[in-house]
Specification:
Chain lengths: 95, 530
């Protein structure tokens, strides 16, 4: 992949695709349970069932995006916002 | 689609395939064998199941009551009955469980009694943590390969996470392959068999990939779900959803909630309950029963069934007096659409929803899934050995081939070696000692073949050695069964055993024929050892 590479900033793309995409998808699952408008079981199980597709989309986007900062920013925004929702839900319970 | 996007997808497809090829082969090959693990291979492996035992429910009820009196009070309210079958256990098993432990253990603890399915004589008694009992159950070829496929015997959570991640990479390979080879949809029947080996390997890779694309996507999706959901996703999602309240979480997702014990004696009609279930679902097989508050007025009995008119397995709920309450998903009485979808995911992954023909289709497609990453890697390597400035030398190409034959071929041989071993163990070794042989033979056999791959020799010769050992192992199954087993190919007492033994004979002879046919071709090739 080093010679005549189809990708720019390949190391950063590897990092984004292999680490950030997985982390984002994992954090999004519990985060999504806080706002999906379904009953308890669907709210929990539906995001879990979407996980493989969600990860696949993020992983492919990390490599296909023209500039590497596009998927990086998107994933960071998704991860931080969903982590915030999780924190809010958990701290709301203990308050 | 832009050519640069296609180039990116092609590069991604190649690299993901190469990096995961061997591990994906290991998981996919054992998965293909595991499709037949329960009940077919399990029945083949256990002579007690060759006679297709049908238990007398009156005797089972009597045993449940008799042993309930023998266990301490804490163990009497939660009883599991496993009927002898190729699905779970080959012996009739009664488990008296105390979820809260007892004076010796803080964790869930159980008294387990196992009986012969024919004579109902007690064979074993176990007392200790429930988890330890399940971990140390008697292994056979079917259960060993099935468990290896699930977590590579690395245990939770590492093994499950690893297989889950492999599911994700399979999904990437399948989706990217589908896009980059989409023009081959117009040539779904093009296979240039008479061209060079490189051409027909390339054709086969693309055609098998495209024909099986839907299957690969389904297996990748369900595999990722099964691997990652229980160890990471479900606990995290449920934890946040219930605001960290573990008790509420368990309450919501417990398939069998415990009833309130009334302390009023009323005999639980297990025999009648099973007969009623058999009448309601005549095509389904009852795998096990869970008796809660046994012989109490508030007793509840759950029967787990498989087969019949539903795709997934089912839970039937009864009152202790044999009044039918309801049938529900095997995951419990959880409302919502997702549970129904989830119920479909399991059979779709295991291929156990449509009888033996679906299973054989799943085995074939599973083997195709196993072969695809290897053929892809061979194509990638082969391409780099050609041209005026090859980036991979012939020596390096040979070493890569030996690595693949050593690791992947070693796994195939290790799996095949378990079948003759099982026959020898059944005849010569007490059942409780079987676990001490199956794992070591599998892993040391595999390791040995990997070590043989280190010997510098032409990879074609190594391939022929692999084929010869494979043929030998396959051909040894039927004669060993005839010499040591009670039912075998010649007496035909159990069709399933005869079919398995016959299949091994056929595979063995087919490999021998292949070796004979390719002897001349191999001799004509240039052979070098690096």
């Amino acid at each position: 992949m080093q010679r005549h590479s189809a990708f720019s900033a390949i190391r950063r793309r590897h990092l984004v695709a292999c680490v950030l995409a997985l982390l984002t998808a994992v954090v999004m699952i519990p985060g999504m349970t806080t706002y999906l408008p379904f009953n308890v079981s669907d709210r929990i199980l539906l995001p879990i069932m979407l996980f493989p597709l969600l990860w696949l989309a993020l992983f492919l986007y990390a490599y296909l995006a023209e500039r590497v900062w596009h998927p990086t920013v998107l994933m960071l925004v998704l991860m931080v916002s969903h982590a915030g929702l999780c924190y809010q839900a958990l701290s709301g319970a203990s308050a | 689609m832009k050519s640069v996007t296609l180039k990116k997808l092609f590069t991604l497809h190649s690299w993901v395939g190469i990096l995961t090829a061997i591990l994906l082969f290991i998981i996919a090959f054992t998965g293909a064998v595991a499709v037949l693990a329960r009940p077919e291979i399990k029945i083949w492996s256990n002579e007690q199941l060759h006679t297709a035992p049908t238990v007398d429910m009156d005797v089972v009820s009597q045993l449940v009551n008799q042993y309930q009196q023998q266990v301490p009070e804490a163990f009497r309210d939660n009883i599991h009955v496993y009927f002898p079958s190729g699905h779970q256990t080959h012996l009739l098993t009664l488990i008296y469980e105390s979820h809260d432990g007892d004076e010796q253990y803080d964790t869930a603890v159980a008294h387990v009694y196992q009986f012969s399915p024919d004579t109902y004589t007690r064979l074993q008694h176990y007392y200790g943590p429930t988890k330890t009992f399940y971990e140390n159950r008697k292994q056979d070829v079917g259960s060993f390969i099935g468990e290896f496929h699930a977590d590579l015997h690395l245990g939770e959570p590492l093994g499950l996470i690893l297989t889950g991640v492999m599911g994700l990479t399979l999904l990437v390979s399948a989706v990217t392959g589908l896009v980059i080879h989409r023009r081959y949809f117009r040539e779904l029947f093009t296979f240039r068999r008479k061209k060079s080996r490189d051409v027909w390997v390339t054709d086969a890779h693309k055609l098998v990939g495209l024909w099986g694309s839907l299957f690969h996507i389904v297996i990748g999706f369900t595999g990722a779900f099964l691997g990652l959901a229980t160890v990471i996703l479900l606990p995290a999602a449920a934890f946040v959803s219930f605001n960290g309240d573990q008790d509420k979480l368990i309450e919501a997702f417990t398939a069998m909630p415990e009833p309130v014990i009334s302390q009023t004696y009323e005999p639980t009609q297990l025999s009648q309950i099973v007969h009623d279930a058999e009448g309601r679902y005549p095509d389904a097989r009852i795998l096990n029963a869970t008796l809660m508050a046994h012989n109490d007025a508030n007793a509840v009995v759950y029967l787990r069934t498989q087969g019949g008119t539903t795709v997934g397995s089912k839970l039937l709920k009864y009152k202790g007096d044999a009044t039918f309450i309801k049938a529900m998903s095997s995951l419990g009485d959880i409302p919502g659409v997702s549970v129904k979808v989830l119920d479909l995911l399991f059979p779709l992954h295991f291929g156990n929803f449509g009888g033996i023909f679906i299973k054989l289709l799943w085995v074939t497609l599973g083997l195709a899934t196993a072969v695809l990453p290897i053929s892809g890697t061979m194509m990638w390597l082969s391409k780099r050995t050609r041209g005026q400035t090859p980036s991979v030398s012939r020596c390096a190409y040979g070493r890569w081939n030996r690595l693949i034959i050593g690791t992947c071929g070693g796994l195939v041989l290790a799996c095949c070696a378990l079948f003759p071993l099982q026959i020898v163990l059944n005849a010569l070794v007490p059942p409780q000692a079987h676990n001490g042989f199956i794992g070591p033979v599998f892993f040391y056999g595999w390791l040995l073949w990997c070590a043989v791959a280190l010997i510098p020799q032409p990879h074609r010769r190594f391939w022929r050695q692999f084929c010869a050992v494979l043929a030998l192992l396959c051909l040894s199954v039927a004669p060993l069964h005839i010499a040591l087993g009670s039912s075998h190919l010649l007496n035909g007492t159990r069709l399933l055993v005869s079919v398995f033994d016959g299949a091994f004979l056929a595979i063995g002879f087919a490999v021998l024929l292949y070796l004979r046919y390719n002897r001349g071709a191999a001799n004509n090739k240039e052979v070098t050892s690096c």
